[in-house]
Every structure is written in structure tokens, then in C-alpha cells.
Amino acid sequence: MKVSTKGRYGLRAIIDLSLNSKGDYVSLISIAERQNISKNYLEQVFSALRKSGIVKSVKGSQGGYLLNGNTSEIKVGDVLRALEGDLSVVKEDEIANNKIELCIKKNIWNKIDEKVFEVIDNITLEDIINEYNKGNDALMYYI
């Protein structure tokens, strides 16, 4: 499995949204500026996230995007699947129906998928935000 630019940028953008929304809608332009990602590219990313129900949007000058749920409920796997589709190492239709290929699928590809899914489906946005905030605490200087 290789995560595309869409998946990597989308994950960065949704973490940015989570950190900066504070219950308010966040504009794509503000995310684009903070993350140095094209606004047009983010429109495609957020369209997929909205269709999957991860974010909700409001149009207009005071509009933007907001998470459609708590950060503790949204898993990294949800975001990546919304943006990447099937995350399996080898797609089901790429496997020939012969004994060797089926044995490889069972003993290698399925096990890789299980481990990847175990990781991405057990990390929430809240987990990432907590780790991010720990890193920020290390940079605080008190006088």
C-alpha cells in the first residue's frame, strides 16, 4: 500500500482543521495557507471527505468546514479510505485464481492488510492531536 499525495495532504488538512476549528467553521484558504497546499487541491480533498461524512460544510463568506463528529470517533483509517478508496496491498481483482496465488494472498497479502488496518483503525484524530500538542509543549519557554 502506498498512500498518495491526496491521502497525505488530506490527513494533514483534517488535523489542521481539528486543531483550528474550536467549534467554528474553518475556511479552506486558511488551511491551504497554513499547510502550504493548493486551495484547489484541498477542494477536491474536502469534497471526498464531505461525501464520506467526515466533514460538513457551509457555503458563503462565513462558511468553511467542520468535523462531522468528535476527534475521538474519527479514525485515520476513515480519512484514508475516504481519500484513497480500498487500502489493500493487492486488489482482489488482481489475484489470479490459481493455487499459488491464493496461497500467497492468504499467507502474505492478507496478513499485511491486517497489520496496516490494525494500525490505521486504532489511531484517532484525537490521538494525533494529543501527540502534536505534546510536541508543542516541549517548545514552550517559561521565564
Tell me about this structure.
The chain has helices at 5-21, 28-35, 39-51, 76-84, 99-120, 125-137; strands at 55-58, 64-67. The protein has 143 residues and is mainly alpha-helical. It has one domain (5-137): Arc Repressor Mutant, subunit A (Orthogonal Bundle). The protein has a two-stranded antiparallel sheet with strand order 1-2. It is elongated. The termini are far apart.
List the helices and strands and how they pair.
Blueprint: H1 5-21, H2 28-35, H3 39-51, E1 55-58, E2 64-67, H4 76-84, H5 99-120, H6 125-137
Antiparallel strand pairs: 1-2
Helix pairs in contact: 1-2, 1-3, 1-4
Please provide the ordered H/E string of secondary-structure elements: HHHEEHHH
Largest β sheet strand count, sense and barrel closure? 2 strands, antiparallel
CATH architecture call: Orthogonal Bundle
Structural class estimated from helices and strands: mainly alpha
Order of adjacent strands in the largest pleated sheet: 1-2
Extended strand count? 2
Count the helices. How many? Answer: 6
CATH-level-4 superfamily name: Winged helix-like DNA-binding domain superfamily/Winged helix DNA-binding domain
Helix content: 55-70%
Uncertain stretches = none
Summarize, please.
With 143 residues, this protein is mostly helical.
Which structural traits does this protein have?
elongated, 143 residues, Arc Repressor Mutant, subunit A, mainly alpha, two-stranded antiparallel sheet
